[in-house]
Each structure stands twice: as structure tokens, then as C-alpha cells.
Write a structure and sequence with these properties.
The complex is a heterodimer of chains A (about 375) and B (about 270).
Chain A lengths: L17 H24 L7 H17 L2 H6 L8 H4 L10 H19 L1 H10 L2 H10 L8 H34 L11 H28 L6 H32 L2 H11 L3 H25 L4 H32 L20 H21 L4 H5 L3
Helix pairs in contact in A: 1-2, 1-8, 1-9, 1-13, 1-14, 2-5, 2-14, 5-6, 5-8, 6-7, 8-9, 9-10, 9-13, 10-11, 10-12, 10-13, 12-13
Chain B lengths: L1 H30 L6 H5 L19 E6 L8 H10 L9 E8 L4 E4 L19 E9 L8 H5 L5 E3 L5 E3 L9 H5 L5 E3 L6 E3 L4 H4 L6 H5 L5 E5 L6 H6 L5 E2 L11 E4 L7
Parallel strand pairs in B: 1-11
Antiparallel strand pairs in B: 1-9, 2-3, 2-4, 5-6, 7-8, 10-11
The chains are: A mainly alpha (about 375), B alpha+beta (about 270).
């Protein structure tokens, strides 16, 4: 078999490695958590109120770190501004900076407006640096009249409504970066943006559910079961869509049996057999699908429900990470000679190595922790001291 | 006996003078730079219609033809390329693939070190009866619709009016999107400059009327290069004769300017 394996000499290197796995993963988490905020602020899903503010701060924390993997990946990161000042309109990638900027400004504004009443109260309570910070964040306004709050509500609804297409573009676009590469048969499919988008929603909602349950457990606060139930229902819906599209992509091509299928078949059944079929499809998709069905359709005890909701969330977070891995790195394992596969060995101390991944994955949590000191994550916290 | 000695001394002095003169003149030649252009003028023009003409990039339409039936897999082209561009080890602007076919029509391909060392001995890891074998040199296809230019987010990869696809190393951000987009895997990320690199068809030579380095050294004429607007060029004649010429990965819709003569269907 080895004698038949032929990789083009320049294909031995996997040029897009773990940083490019991480980037769509982080933006995906942003997208998913923003969807939860949108469901509450635009579509009026009242049961999501307990995590509505948390979802926004969570999205902002992760979005603020989403560009670091890209910078780590660039060969010449000091030239990254060229993407903004000399954009090439034919390139899918040239929009990255602009879309990212719009998204972070928008989510930042939404957070400031949503938190305005809280920030005004905190401003009046605090002294020193924190007081200055709150004055800046409230733009030195203490107006909390019913009219101004009503105006805030309208602006928030409008901004979140704009945020939906922005978040969709932010992540659908990441999918298109891959879907638009015709040279790689495992990437070039119009379904790629759709798959990326739905899996982003899955990962973001899972992350919120998990973070909510864990933080509440650790701080000995009650978990709002109605909120988690709604999240799990929404999660099930998005996951059915995401998984269906992922499988549709594979099965429609295996039925059409074109050259495309013959090229990708060897990849999925060969080097990606364990990471795709066993882990992504089997353990992390079919199992959570059954669990989600069980959680949604049957009445469970509260403790059981919380435990399995957290377990499903972990599995789905892993599923989406595996999906990114299998698309980004898996897709590059197949040489463009379509006659063989290269190998990928992650290194610990590389610029794009495992240590970097750990650091970059910890960063959003550190940012989230710092932000939680400025923006109280939970409504109860705010009520308790006052 | 004194006279001959004196004459001998004179001859010695004359000889030493000549040697010294020669040495000084020789050293001066090394020190004083030669006028620019003199060096290239000495090499006869290899592509007619470029030297001494008004600079007009859109005047020529270049094409590259690789004749599979002539390639002997000597690797000279790869050596010339590596010397011309100081290509780092493990990366390839051009390479030569070796194809083997057995009687079951199974195809075995390899390209150790990109064919740089030449294929001097048969493959040892294939224990089949070989029915047929041939070599396929690969390089940048200089597509008319280049996906690498399309995807470059900063315009560092661009197409010149005479059809060359080049990379501006001062502008490239090293995102490697072009490497993903190239269906021929002709690009790599230079480990030293951390920018994208690829075969240029020796643009710097061509614009001085010289053939690309690989074409220049090919001992069998398997690599051909010329201007399609020049009806006397070999490439024009080949493309307008009844030869079987084809391009790689036609379905990609990239319209390469690199053509292959006698290309087998097994070649990707």
C-alpha cells in the first residue's frame, strides 16, 4: 500500500494547522452564544432571561480573542494590517478584518447598552479607578428615566437584530473560506458555510449551558432549570440541522459517486476513520443525539437533567472541535495528487503548537473572568447586594 | 660567460615585469566592475524580440511546453532551479515525478527529493513487473485564471500583463491561502522569509531575453519555452501542429499556460 502512496513534494507540510482549527472554533462559540442573546432580545424567548446577559459577555470575551490564532498563524503577522488597507476584493479572506471589526463593535455596543442601568448603579456605588471606568462605560450619563430605558430597549433590539446577519456572516464566511477552495475536494462544497454555521450554533449553545451549570455549581447558586431546558431544546434543534447537513454532504456524494466521492472516500475511510467516523460521528454525534432526544422528550429529575445536560454539552463541544479538526487538518492530509496522504504531527513548542493552543484557549476565560468583575454576569448577583 | 648571464637577467626582468603586469591587470579586472549589461550581452539572446525593444509587457504571450516523451529524469532542471533561486531544502519550485505502470495497470508514482538527484536507479520498493515508465516534470502552471491570485487577501500574488503569476515578498502576509488554492501544489511557504514562494518561469531571465534556467539546462529539450505571438517560436509551432497537447487538471477551470506533450491519462 505504501508504494502506492504519492504526495506532491510541497504537500508534505500541513500549512493550516491547529491555529486554523481554533479560529473557527472560537468564532463558532461567539456565534452560538449570540444566537441565545438574539432569541431573548429579538424573538422574546423569556425563559432565556437568566443567561441573556451572560451570553453577550461570553460572546464578547471569546470574540476579543478570536483573532489571536490567526495572528499566530500568519507568516508575517506584522503585516496583518495590509488586509485592511490593501484588500483584494476577489479574495474571500480579505473581508475577515472588516467583518470581525463590525462584529466586535456591534457586540460591544450591545453589551454596553444592556448593562447601562447596572453600570450606572455601579458607578454611583464605586470609587477610584472603577468609578472612572464606569463613567467611561456609561459615557458619563446617569439618565435612567423610563423614556431613556425604553429607547435603550429599542436600540438593543435593533442592534441585536442587525447582529444576527453579522454573526451569520462572521461564521458562514469562515465556512466559505474553506468551501471556496476548489483545489481541495473535501472542502469545495456550497454546504460548507451552512455546516459551519449550524455547528457554530451548537458549540456556542453547548458552551453556554456548560458554563452556566458549572459556574452556578461552583458558586453554590441555584440553576434555573427552565432556562437550561429551553437551551437544550434549542440545542437539539440546531444539532439535528448541523448533523443532518454534515451527513448529507457525505451521503449525497457517496451516492453521486463522482470523482469527488472517490477522492474523499479514501480520506474518510483511511486517515480520518477514527477521528471522523468513530469520534465525530459515532461517539460525539449519535450518542448526544440519543441523549438529547431523551432529555427533550422525557421528564427527568432536576439533578439528572443538569448532569446529562452538562454531559451532552461537553460531547457536543468536542464534536464541533473534531469537526473543525477533520475539515481543516483532515482536508489537508489528502495530497492534491489524490494518490496519497501526508501526516500531521502536532508539536508542543511550535509557534502553532499545543502549548499555544492551550494558552489561546485559556485567554477567553481569563478575559471573561476580568469582564465578570466589571459586568456582573447574573441578575441575582446584582439584586443580592442592593 | 658574463654576457649570457646579463642577457639572462634581462630576460628574467622582462619576464617578471610581464607577470607583474598581468597580475595587476588581472586583479584590476576583478576589482573594477564590468559595465552593466556587458555580461548578459555576451550570452546570445535566447528569446527573440525582447532585447533592444521598447518595454512593452503586453507584447508577448508566453507559453511553456513539457514534452513527456523526451524527459529522461536526469534532474538537471531541479538542480538549475535550486541554484538559481537558492530554494530551501524540502520545498520545490519545480520537481520531476516518476511514473511506473505494471501489467495490472496499477500506477506507482514517486518523487524523492523532488527528483533533484536524478533517477539513477530503479525503485526498490515496488516488486512488480514494470510495463511502462515515464517522467513528468512539474512547475507553476501560470494559469490564465489563477486561483492563487483570486484568493490572495492583500494582492501580493498578482498577474503581470505578459501572463506571469508572481509574488511580491514585501507584501505577502504568509497566510498560505494561495498554497491551499493552488490545484497543482506549486507553492510553498518559504521557511526563511515566511512568505509564499513559487516558480516564476524565471521572469528575471525571460525579461532579459534568456530562457528559464530549467529550460536552458534540459539536455533533451523536454522543457520548451517561448512567445506564442512569435510565429517562429517552437512553442507556437507545437501548439499549432497536430500534436497531442494537454494541460493538468483541466476541470479546475484554471486555463494553464503550461502545456504537456504526450501526457498520459494517469498523470494528475
Amino acid at each position: 500500500m505504501d508504494a502506492l502512496n504519492f504526495v506532491f513534494p510541497n504537500d508534505l507540510h500541513v500549512h493550516w494547522s491547529m491555529m486554523i482549527v481554533l479560529y473557527p472554533y472560537l468564532t463558532g462559540l461567539v456565534d452560538g452564544s449570540f444566537i441565545v442573546a438574539a432569541l431573548y432580545y429579538v424573538f422574546g424567548v423569556k425563559s432565556l432571561k437568566p443567561i441573556s446577559r451572560f451570553s453577550l459577555v461570553f460572546a464578547l470575551a471569546f470574540l476579543s480573542c478570536a483573532m489571536f490564532p490567526l495572528l499566530m498563524h500568519l507568516g508575517r503577522p506584522e503585516r496583518n494590517h495590509n488586509m485592511m488597507i490593501t484588500p483584494s476584493p476577489t479574495s474571500a479572506m480579505s473581508g475577515a478584518g472588516f467583518i470581525f471589526t463590525v462584529a466586535i463593535v456591534l457586540i460591544g455596543l450591545i453589551v454596553l447598552l444592556v448593562y447601562r442601568p447596572t453600570l450606572v448603579k455601579l458607578r454611583l456605588k464605586t470609587k477610584g479607578i472603577m468609578n472612572i471606568l464606569y463613567r467611561v462605560l456609561t459615557m458619563d450619563s446617569t439618565n435612567l428615566s423610563p423614556e431613556s430605558l425604553e429607547l435603550d430597549r429599542k436600540i438593543i433590539k435593533f442592534l441585536v437584530a442587525i447582529g444576527i446577519p453579522v454573526a451569520t456572516v462572521l461564521h458562514g464566511y469562515v465556512g466559505f473560506l474553506f468551501g471556496g477552495v476548489k483545489a481541495n475536494p473535501s472542502w469545495s462544497t456550497p454546504l460548507m458555510p451552512v455546516i459551519f454555521l449550524f455547528s457554530a450554533c451548537v458549540s456556542g449553545i453547548s458552551a453556554l449551558v456548560l458554563a452556566y451549570i458549572v459556574i452556578k455549581k461552583l458558586s453554590n447558586q441555584p440553576v434555573d432549570l427552565g432556562c437550561v431546558r429551553t437551551c437544550i431544546n434549542i440545542l437539539a434543534g440546531f444539532f439535528i440541522l448541523a448533523f443532518s447537513f454534515e451527513m448529507l454532504e457525505v451521503f449525497s456524494h457517496s451516492y453521486l459517486r463522482t470523482w469527488y466521492h472517490h477522492a474523499v472516500e479514501g480520506l474518510l475511510n483511511g486517515p480520518l476513520f477514527y477521528s471522523f467516523w468513530v469520534w465525530q460521528v459515532g461517539i460525539c454525534s449519535l450518542l448526544p443525539l440519543l441523549l438529547l432526544g431523551w432529555l427533550c422528550l422525557f421528564k427527568l429529575k432536576a439533578s439528572m437533567f443538569k448532569f446529562f445536560a452538562a454531559a451532552v454539552s461537553i460531547m457536543l463541544l468536542l464534536q464541533v472541535l473534531l469537526m473543525r479538526w477533520n475539515v481543516v487538518i483532515g482536508g489537508q492530509l489528502m495530497s492534491k495528487s489524490t494518490r496519497g496522504y501526508t501526516q500531521f504531527h502536532p508539536e508542543w513548542f511550535d509557534k502553532e503548537g499545543i502549548i499555544t493552543v492551550i494558552v489561546l484557549m485559556s485567554l477567553p476565560f481569563i478575559v471573561l473572568f476580568i469582564m465578570s468583575k466589571i459586568f456582573p454576569l447574573w441578575l441575582e448577583e446584582e439584586k443580592a447586594p442592593s | 660567460m658574463g654576457k649570457p648571464d646579463a642577457e639572462l637577467d634581462k630576460e628574467r626582468r622582462a619576464f617578471i615585469k610581464k607577470v607583474l603586469n598581468g597580475a595587476i591587470a588581472g586583479s584590476l579586472l576583478l576589482v573594477i566592475p564590468m559595465p552593466i549589461g556587458a555580461a548578459t550581452e555576451e550570452i546570445p539572446e535566447q528569446i527573440p524580440g525582447i532585447r533592444g525593444k521598447k518595454w512593452d509587457m503586453s507584447h508577448q504571450r508566453f507559453a511553456f511546453i513539457v514534452d513527456i516523451t523526451r524527459c529522461i529524469g536526469c534532474g538537471s532542471c531541479c538542480v538549475a532551479d535550486r541554484r538559481e533561486f537558492n530554494v530551501p531544502d524540502g520545498y520545490y519550485r519545480t520537481w520531476v515525478e516518476r511514473y511506473l505502470k505494471d501489467f495490472e495497470s496499477e500506477v506507482y508514482v514517486d518523487s524523492p527529493h523532488g527528483g533533484f538527484d536524478g533517477y539513477q536507479s530503479p525503485r526498490t520498493d515496488v516488486e512488480v513487473e514494470v510495463r511502462d515508465t515515464f517522467f513528468v516534470p512539474k512547475l507553476c502552471n501560470m494559469c490564465k485564471e489563477p486561483p492563487c491570485v483570486q484568493v490572495c487577501p492583500v494582492g501580493a500574488t498578482f498577474k503581470t500583463p505578459d501572463g506571469f503569476i508572481l509574488v511580491d515578498p514585501k507584501r505577502c502576509v504568509g497566510c498560505a491561502y494561495c498554497i491551499q488554492a493552488c490545484p497543482y501544489s506549486a507553492r510553498y511557504l518559504d521557511p526563511v522569509t515566511r512568505t509564499a514562494e513559487k516558480c516564476t518561469w524565471c521572469y528575471h531571465r525571460v525579461r532579459k531575453g534568456l530562457l528559464p534556467a530549467c529550460v536552458n539546462v534540459c539536455p533533451t529539450g523536454a522543457r520548451k519555452f517561448g512567445d506564442l505571438n512569435d510565429k517562429n517560436s517552437e512553442v507556437y509551432k507545437l501548439l499549432h501542429e497536430h500534436e497531442v497537447l494537454t494541460v493538468l487538471k483541466k476541470d479546475m477551470g484554471t486555463y494553464p499556460a503550461l502545456y504537456y506533450k504526450g501526457l498520459r491519462r494517469e498523470v494528475v
